[in-house]
């Protein structure tokens, strides 16, 4: 039904006048609701945010008009990249056919014909229906290409050629094989590409993936086709099922967490709407990993006054958190409100809570480093005082991931009190610095390719709610209290954790509210703005590689907005 609705909506979109299409899109109920929520809760929003009327519609697959611009740019880039040297038959094409359809097979073969001089062999993996129709395939006159029809993919051995795995009904971009040939000597590991969808012979709905993201694969099976296997590689699929490619990649990673694959940020495969599989969303990946629930977690909570938010934060942790083995370390940074001071004195009577004083000027990094030295746990939790627990298993889920040997920092999905997303991962490069992915999306919105609801790897996560082992914290020297006293210290910390060979992770199952900037406030004075600018410059100079290309993002997506819309400027 959802596929039929998608096709119908696409057809309707094509016949409507452009002005009406724009009107309908802007009149969308959810967008109107979104705008109203923003306006009603301005106190929670950064003062320099763009009004909804100036931001591209959130939560949409990129528009056809935007994608047309992107397609022209990609085609031009592919042409420039294609080698002008003598052509060579260097590709072994494997076409998986879970369901027999000669019409769909014809679509795939036709897309090969225009570039067949790069193909050495074709394997078609299906049942006996194809065997009886092999003569029809041979009628294609695939000159110089060895054609094999097999019923069991496991009998296909290691290839002397670069191997490309796709599904029946999918079409190759007209420059896919020339580009692959030009990259042949650079493809030394399993590699995947971006894809789009063909509806009524028109390309639409681009899937611009991140670089290798094993936890996103576990939660959404995002790599489903267009996989390149280098010469002599042993990776292979075991059946021709619809999910076999993603399943095989999952097993490779789960058996070896150092398994790594590469990504080509070009759309080389066009998927047919009739063969499209629904993207998995929100699968709990922690079930794949065994962890100890006996590890002591030290939840470090700095505060300056802020009794209203601090008391809610502490109460929600104590009353809702299912994970039992934790302590709360509150760091009082010069509070002078009598009610707050009285609360801090009384709360220490709880067996899980201690309060320590930091009587120096505000320095977020130094405060947390100081508290970490007093923490008893082998796992540290950096928690803002304006956090409020939603999901009781938030800490259990995060602890399960932080104990994995290849994982460094674990962040949570955070919401504004108005149920809009405040944090679902940090993307480097937004605004020249860093920003929050899917910011202001509704709580239940799946986001782009289900990424707003799925556990996945990010280069960085916010320290408003972050877990890390004490060993890793100490290995990188904690937070940078010299250059980043207030802003971006969490981003810098996460990137230094990456240098330990770890991956950082957003745990989408850990859901909490974040009453952002209530305690510290906005950058609203000349002094604060000067300090903030200095910290931005430090981030840009120190981590220019990630700002130029965040592996958790895609160069085809914009850095102007936080909504995963298409990049239109060069």
As residue ranges, the low-confidence spans are 1-12, 15-61
Q: What can be said about the biggest beta sheet?
A: 10 strands, mixed
**What is the domain total for the residues?**
2
| Span between termini | 38 Å
Task: Tag the structure with descriptive keywords.
alpha/beta; Spore Coat Polysaccharide Biosynthesis Protein SpsA, Chain A; 2 domains; 10-stranded mixed beta sheet; 9-stranded mixed beta sheet; elongated; Glyco_trans_2-like; Nucleotide-diphossugar_trans; Glycosyltransferase 2-like domain-containing protein
What is this structure's SSE topology?
Elements: H1 2-15, H2 18-26, H3 29-40, H4 64-81, E1 91-96, H5 102-113, E2 119-125, H6 128-131, H7 134-138, E3 146-150, E4 162-167, E5 171-172, H8 176-182, E6 191-199, E7 202-207, H9 214-220, E8 227-229, H10 244-255, E9 262-272, E10 297-303, H11 307-320, E11 326-332, H12 338-347, E12 353-357, H13 364-374, E13 379-383, E14 387-389, H14 394-402, E15 407-415, E16 421-423, E17 426-428, E18 434-436, E19 456-458, E20 465-469, H15 470-475, H16 489-498, E21 503-514, H17 526-542, H18 544-548
Parallel strand pairs: 1-2, 1-4, 2-3, 6-9, 10-11, 10-13, 11-12, 15-21
Antiparallel strand pairs: 4-8, 5-9, 6-7, 6-8, 13-20, 14-21, 15-16, 15-20, 17-18, 19-21
Pfam family, one: Glycos_transf_2
Domain Glycosyltransferase 2-like: 298-417
Protein name: Glycosyltransferase 2-like domain-containing protein
């Amino acid at each position: 039904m959802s596929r039929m609705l998608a096709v119908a909506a696409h057809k309707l979109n094509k016949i409507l006048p452009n002005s009406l299409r724009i009107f309908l899109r802007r009149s969308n109920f959810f967008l109107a609701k979104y705008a109203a929520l923003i306006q009603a809760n301005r106190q929670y929003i950064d003062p320099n945010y763009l009004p909804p009327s100036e931001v591209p519609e959130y939560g949409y697959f990129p528009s056809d008009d935007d994608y047309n611009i992107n397609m022209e740019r990609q085609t031009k880039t592919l042409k420039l990249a294609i080698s002008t040297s003598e052509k060579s038959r260097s590709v072994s094409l494997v076409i998986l056919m879970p369901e027999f359809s000669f019409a769909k097979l014809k679509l795939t073969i036709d897309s090969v014909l225009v570039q067949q001089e790069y193909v050495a062999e074709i394997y078609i993996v299906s049942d006996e229906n194809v065997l009886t129709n092999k003569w029809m395939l041979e009628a294609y006159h695939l000159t110089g290409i060895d054609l094999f029809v097999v019923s069991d993919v496991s009998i296909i051995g290691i290839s002397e050629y670069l191997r490309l795995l796709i599904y029946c009904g999918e079409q190759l971009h007209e420059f896919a094989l020339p580009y692959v040939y030009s990259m042949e000597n650079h493809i030394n590991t399993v590699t995947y590409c971006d894809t789009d969808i063909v509806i009524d012979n028109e390309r639409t709905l681009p899937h611009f993936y991140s670089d290798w993201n094993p936890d996103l694969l576990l939660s959404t099976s995002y790599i489903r086709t267009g996989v390149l296997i280098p010469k002599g590689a042993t990776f292979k699929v075991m059946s021709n099922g619809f999910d076999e490619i993603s399943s095989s990649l999952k097993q490779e990673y789960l058996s070896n967490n150092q398994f790594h694959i590469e990504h080509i940020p070009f759309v080389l495969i066009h998927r047919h709407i009739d063969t499209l599989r629904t993207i998995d969303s929100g699968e709990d990946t922690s079930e794949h990993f065994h962890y100890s629930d006996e590890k002591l977690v030290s939840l470090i909570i700095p505060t300056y006054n802020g009794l209203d938010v601090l008391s809610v934060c502490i109460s929600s942790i104590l009353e809702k958190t299912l994970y039992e083995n934790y302590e709360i370390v509150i760091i009082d940074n010069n509070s002078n409100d009598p009610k707050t001071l009285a609360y801090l004195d009384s709360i220490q009577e709880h067996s899980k809570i201690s309060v320590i004083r930091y009587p120096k000027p505000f320095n977020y990094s130094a405060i947390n480093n100081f508290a970490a030295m007093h923490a008893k746990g082998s796992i540290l939790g950096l928690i803002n005082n304006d956090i409020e627990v939603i999901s009781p298993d938030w800490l259990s889920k995060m602890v399960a991931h932080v104990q994995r040997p290849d994982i460094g920092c674990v962040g949570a999905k955070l919401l504004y009190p108005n149920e809009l997303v405040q944090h679902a991962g940090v993307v480097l490069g937004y605004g020249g610095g860093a920003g929050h992915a899917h910011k202001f999306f509704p709580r239940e919105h799946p986001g782009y390719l289900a990424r707003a609801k799925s556990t996945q790897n990010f280069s960085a996560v916010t320290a408003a709610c972050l877990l890390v082992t004490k060993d890793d914290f100490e290995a990188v020297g904690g937070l940078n209290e010299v250059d980043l006293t207030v802003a971006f210290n969490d981003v810098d910390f996460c990137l230094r954790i990456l240098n330990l060979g770890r991956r950082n992770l957003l745990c989408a199952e850990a859901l909490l509210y974040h009453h952002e900037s209530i305690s510290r406030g906005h950058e609203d004075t000349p002094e604060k703005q000067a300090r903030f600018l200095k910290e931005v410059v430090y981030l840009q100079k120190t981590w220019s590689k990630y700002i130029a290309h965040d592996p958790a993002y895609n160069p085809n997506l914009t850095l102007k907005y936080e909504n995963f819309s298409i990049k239109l400027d060069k």
